[in-house]
Write a structure and sequence with these properties.
The chain has 495 residues and is α/β, with parallel strands linked by helices. The protein is 37% helix and 20% strand. A seven-stranded mixed sheet has the order 16-17-15-14-20-21-22. Strands 3-2-1-5-13 form a five-stranded mixed sheet, sandwiched between helices. The protein has a two-stranded antiparallel sheet with strand order 4-7. Strand 2 and strand 3 form a beta hairpin. Helix 13 packs across helix 17 and helix 14 packs across helix 17.
Length: 495
Amino acid sequence: MYLLGCDIGSSSIKASLVDQESGLTVGLDFYPKEEAPIKAVKPSWAEQDPEDWWHDLKIAVQGAIDKAGIDGRKISAIGISYQMHGLVVVDKKKEVLRPSIIWCDSRAVPYGDRAFNVIGEKECLSHLLNSPGNFTAAKLAWIKENEPRIFELIDKIMLPGDYIAMRLTGDIVTTVSGLSEGIFWDFKNNSLSSGIMNYFGFSESLIPEIRPTFGLQGELLKSVATELGMKKGTPVTYRAGDQPNNALSLNVLNPGEIAATGGTSGVVYGVNGNVSYDKLSRVNTFAHVNHSEAQTRLGILLCINGVGILNSWVKRNVAPEGIDYNQLNELAMTAPIGSNGLAILPFGNGVERMLQNKPTNCSIHGLNFNIHTKSHVARAAQEGIVFSFKYGMDIMNEMGMDIEVIRAGYANMFLSPIFREALAGVTGAVIELYDTNGAVGAAKGAGMGAGIYPSAEEAFRSLKKIDVVEPDGLKANEYCGAFEVWKEHLEKELN
């Protein structure tokens, strides 16, 4: 028997099939093969059509089944990972009313900021552990004010993973972890936040029924099962946002453990066993996948919007036409550490939480037409991404989190030798790389939710460490020096 994991990303939809007995991946596919478009009707906006996610998911799932060469009816459970903080709204017929406002859309910042000021900093941070900021609740407030006709038609609001689960099962449900990432959850009262709902004027009827993160969340519809070649009634038994799920996929479940990703956006995610928050709300605190009223497990999340998207922009617009990412890395490695003084601030994909939502775009500093080449730009882009990680991790250190080991999947930016070397060098942390991904983590989560795996230890006994990157002393000094130059440019921009 097999477990199916689906990862609903903003770049593509991934599907993995895991042999539930061995824990090994037997089939993996993704769609689209090129990065999915993000529609920006206005500057700082970012939208995607949920119907596109559903279309792409069906192709990815069928591709994974075909590659595995298995009978889809032998899939025993389904798990879902998804891009966090997005908003999907549907009417009573479960029809989508408008494109999804996704995670990197910045239009709702003023709505969250006003809520933070009116409700009160102390009240928000002690109950929500965050400012309402640019999260799902604030995005819904934007619709209420700017698209009142659509708002009146809304029957239920959903996160992207809730929507995909609805298409699979017909049921509209959500999780505490999901509500916390939307800034709808009151941690002090362990309930839906009346403060947020009352301030924005939202009816509690908009919120779906809450189900456990691990546990039955619906069963596969006959029509969907027939289309995908699966069995009617196959249970969906796990659902989580991409960053908590990435941590799960790396078996990061206990206080002090750290996970990182470097996809379109970049994240450092640490688990805390105590209720805490950043007073400036530069990093965020959400319910981790194993959080409960009896056991505090909170995810401290540092998110940087402009990561892989900058690298892909350089590949498309600066690098020689037609090269792949391996060739782009080789090009970057021909330039020295520090890129001969060239520094790039990678903040061109929406406002950055760790910069307190101050308006800033990607910018290039120290460019010398007589010295710098495409290779310098390629390297400076990757170093700038790494330095943004370091800048944010310093904030986490201020909160008392000591980051000595970083676990990451061997994917995306972590495939780059420069990125790995620079991150280890500038942070002083050891980087452990594993053969896993979000879709595999979702499949393992499904096995846990279905009771197939009695514990996380059993679910992740097959997790394979494939490389360890330790800081190189001499290079580390060079990277730290380049970081200080980069940081000076950032502070001038912010001021």
